[in-house]
Amino acid sequence: MKISVSCASGIEAVTKRELNKLGVINAPAINGRIGFEGDWKTVAECNMYLSTASRVYIELAEFPASDFDELFDGVSDICWERFVSVRGKLMIDVKLVESKLHAITATRAIVKKAIAKRLTRICKTDELSEDGERYRIEVSVFHDVATIALDTSGEGLHKRGYRVLVGEAQIKENVAAALIDLSVWNKERPFADLFCGTGTIAIEAALKAKNVPSGISRSFDFLDYRCFDKRIWEEVYETAASGIDNGCKAVIFASDIDENQLKLCRIHAKRAGVDDIIRIERKDMADFRSDLTRGVVVSNPPYGERMLSRAEIEKLYRGLGKVAENNPDWCFYTLTDVTDFEQLFGKRADKKRKIYNGRIQCFYYTHLSHLKDTNGHRS
Questions:
Q1: What is the DSSP letter of 265?
Q2: Confidence class of residue 371 from pLDDT cuts 50, 70 and 90?
Q3: Are the C-beta atoms of residues 187 and 248 closer than 8 Å to each other?
Q4: At a CB cut-off of 8 Å and minimum separation 6, what does 358 contact?
Q5: Cβ(294)–Cβ(332) below 8 Å
Q6: Which of 3, 235, 265, 279 has the most CB within a 10 Å radius?
Q7: What residues are paired with 136 via a beta bridge?
Q8: pLDDT value at position 198?
């Protein structure tokens, strides 16, 4: 079975590392999409464990589609009855790139008609009620070749189930998880987010510290597929739940100057089951000082004129640089779209990586501490 995993642009390597842990090796990544072969257990494990991915797809067919007749015939040949019930609600996403099929609405209608015609014929029914389970279908036509895929995740994988109250300009959970994985942090080292907002980065760190799989508290569309054996999910779920470390003693700080945001942070941390290891407090970033060593700060500070004026941005980022100077035993990782960040921070980054936070192109800056590991590398 052909499987593909999507992720935000710039974090493909991180998602591939997660796939490696699941036994998926040497899978090519192209434009935020990683393709490989697998079975239903692979689908279940990807949805359960991939903290940095966006969605998991199974590719059903690929065929020429230079006109609507070819599209209709190709879609009709797919064994939809294996997946979709006659009560299924079809949600069809269409992407057309250099295709003769210019109209997205018409393309969607043809695909839906082809699926409906096959289901009514095979299932011997005159009516498809569309009042049952949801089925997300991706139709991509590139250079007149159509690829039809089922979105097994349903809701995006960034939706873990703990964040029901969303503050302004929040980072998605899967991007936050990638930022943590791109840092040198592990649960033996102290962690801090000095601009925690509603808590996403700190909570993702706490979930990793406790070894809580990102999909443990939510449902997925593939669980309703007619051909899916639910015993596979029961096995994957049991294994995932048994690996959670509720006795974890990680040290994680989450601070912000906005008490309203912190109220949401506390609610989210409790819903995620990690409020016992996150120390949440109202504090100005400039006041951060720790006696602990080998700590890691991962932050997504405010940026953009919608959030702050240019003068406020300059003051904030210069202040962050001072905090780094005052905590030389700590590494600082910062995601921002401010192009002169290094100049404002006062120090050239040891590394920087382009990452898209939603549709905003940002850079993720690494400033390592002055400490060295056993191999003599700064860390």
A1: H
A2: confident
A3: yes
A4: 172
A5: no
A6: 265
A7: 91, 151
A8: 94
Q: Is the pLDDT of residue 57 over 80?
A: yes
125-147 as b/e, with b when 16 or more CB fall inside 10 Å?
A: eeebeeeebebbbbbbbeebebb
CA-based nearest residue to 157, from 182, 178, 186? 178
> H/E element holding 342?
helix 341-345
State the residue for tokens 């030389």. Answer: 328
SS3 6: strand
Phi/psi of residue 264, nearest 5 degrees: -65, -40
Average pLDDT (133-138) is 96
Rounded to an integer, what distance in angstroms lies between the CA atom of residue 289 and that of residue 189? 16
Cα–Cα distance measured from residue 112 to residue 71, given in angstroms and rounded to the nearest whole number = 11
What the block records as the tokens of 282 is: 């109202």
pLDDT at 125: 86
CA dist., res. 344 & res. 320, Å (int): 9
Residue 202 has which token pair?
């700190």
Domains of the chain: 2-151 (3.30.2130.30), 173-212+223-367 (3.40.50.150)
Angle between helices 200-209 and 259-272 (to 10 degrees): 30
- Return all residues near 307 (Cβ < 8 A) that are at least 6 apart: 168, 169
- Are residues 245 and 210 in contact, defined by beta-carbon separation less than 8 angstroms? yes
Residues 6+ apart with CB under 8 A from 37: 1, 2, 3
Taking residues 136-151, report their average pLDDT.
97
Report the C-alpha gap between 136 and 90 in whole angstroms.
6
Give the single-character DSSP code of 280. E
Question: Which residues lie closer than 8 Å to 274 by C-beta, 6 or more apart?
Answer: 203, 206, 207, 209, 210, 212
pLDDT of residue 358: 86
CB 236 within 8 A of CB 68: no
pLDDT the model gives residue 102 = 85
Strand partners for 53:
7
- Token duo for residue 142: 């590139």
Q: What is each CA distance from 313 to 204, 309, 362, in whole angstroms?
A: 26, 6, 15
